[in-house]
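[job 4471] stage=fold_predict status=RUNNING
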Amino acid sequence: MRRVAWALFLSFAGVAWAAGGAGLYGGWPEVFGIQFVTEQGWRMSVGLAPETGEVTRYSVAVSLDLVLAAGTVYSDDGAMVDVAYYAGAGATGSLLRADPEVNGHAMLGLEAYFTAMKSVGFFGELQLGQRLWFAPLSTRPLLGFRVGFSFR
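[job 4471] inference complete, writing C-alpha cells
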C-alpha cells in the first residue's frame, strides 16, 4: 500500500510540474500534500490525512477546487512583493481510510509572490464547509486551512 501511495504521489507531481503551476502544502485536514493549478482556475491536490481515531495512520485525500474570484491586494510593480487574494469552492474525498469521508468547502486565501519573476509564492488559505462520514453515517462542520509554497 505504501509503494502504491508513493507511486501515485510521484506521478502526480510529475504531471503537475509539466502541465502548469504546482505547489506543496501542509495544514488540516491534510497534513502534507502536493497540488496542481491550471490557468483556468482548477486546482487538483493529493494529500496525506491522519485517521480520525489513530493519528499515527494516514490515508490519501484527493481534492478538486475551483477558484471563482481572484485579484490583487497589494502590488509594488514587481520590485519585491505582490499580494493577491483568491476565493472559490471545492470538495475533498478520503476514501481509503477506516472511516471514509467527503467534504464540500468554500475557500479564501492570500498569496504573496516574493521574486521579481513572480514564479515562487507563499500562500495561506482558510476552508469552511461540511464533512460527511459514511461509516457510521454522520456529518460535522469543517474548518480547515492550508499553508504552503506555489511554483509557476
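[job 4471] summary: The helical segments are 2-19.
[job 4471] exit 0
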